[in-house]
Amino acid sequence: MSPSLNTTTSSSSKDEGAGVSPQNKGSWSSFLKSIASFNGDLSSMTAPPFILGTLSLTEFSAYWTQHPAVFVAPAAEKDPAKRALLVLKWFLSTLKPSYSTRNDKYGSEKKPLNPFLGELFLGKWEDEAGTTELVSEQVSHHPPVTAYCIQNAKHGIKLEGYNGQKASFSRTIHIKQIGHALLTLSAHDNETYLITLPNIHIEGLIYGKPFVELNGCTYISSSSGFTSKIDYSGKGWVSGKKNSFTATMYPTGKEKDVLYSVEGQWPEAFTIREGGGKHGTVIDTFNARTQPITPLIVPALEQQDPWEANKAWEKVITAITKGDMDTTNAEKSKLENAQRELRRKEQAEGREWQRRFFSRSQGAEDWWEKLAKTGCAGERIEADKTGGVWRFDKEKAETARRPFHEGATPF
Description:
The protein is an alpha+beta fold and about 400 residues long. The protein is built from 10 helices and 17 strands. The chain has helices spanning about 25-35, 70, 80-95, 95-100, 100-105, 310, 315-320, 325-350, 365-375, 395-400; strands spanning about 50-55, 110-115, 120-125, 130-140, 145-150, 155-170, 175-185, 190-195, 200-205, 210-220, 225-235, 245-250, 260-265, 270-275, 280-285, 360, 390. The strands form 3 sheets. Strands 3, 4, 5, 6, 7, 8, 9, 10, 11, 12, 13, 14 and 15 form a 13-stranded antiparallel β-sheet that branches. A hairpin with an 8-residue loop joins strand 12 (about 245-250) and strand 13. Helix 7 runs antiparallel to helix 8. The longest helix has 25 residues, at about 325-350. The two termini are about 25 Å apart.
């Protein structure tokens, strides 16, 4: 699917105030108290309008590819070990845009808009890497799950995946990301990389300036026989710097035989060395602060379908930007209530919402057995928590055209 696109940026370019404003400090304290006493998944809570951001979660899929040249680089590498290293480098380059961009821009983390079922976000990047296309779709609302596909036909590389979040409170907000991503290189016999997702906790709540910290570890397991393990340590015990991490790459099943190691701060910079430890030869570096970003191109609002994120949330985004919390709440409720009515109607008629670009996988996930069990310790597919295993449906995509749902709108 190659939608007609104009050169306009997404709603992430909208201006917002930093942190919690003085007049909202009291409401912020009340909100924190309600979180602390809430039982269950925090994602089901309604957030006060003043902490909302202007981005929907469907737009977060674009963070995978703000550096298209880094994304496609593995496709040109002939050596399988170096190819796996380039995949690791690309993944690490996505952490800053994914988990720090909003804090850098607005002064604190903002709660994203919760996508409605069927919400779409489409765009593309154009630079020296060629054209890289993005399709993001909300495939489930209960539980909330976003699926995405990013591909560059020129280089024969495709990333697809899906993720949901389960949030809880224990001294701070903890978010478990459920799902995974698959990177496929068609030029190398469809070499595949399984990528797991980091867990998140939110720091700075008590000061009204929340920011994301990553914890635990994630893996990248390749069909070519290499595994990368990334450990997120938060504030490094030696360096004392927040957002610290270390990573190692090794032949699958031989964790002690380290081929390459990486260390740094994911929103700042990292260094890649041969072998393990700090004394190996430096072979590459990456500075997330200075690396040029290729802007995402999305259709102008007047060309967007009502189901596309920026168009659907237009009035809410405008109200948030103006600081008009009454209108924000009214327009947000209008959309949410319309969606509830659509779900009631579907249930009464015994039918299910039809996704436009993605489908549930119906077959056995053999790749999971091969990649997750050998290279990703303790990882499970957890299809019951994401409404299924979601895959990009090429046949659907080839016929998808605006209007995506003839005669229907999200309202």
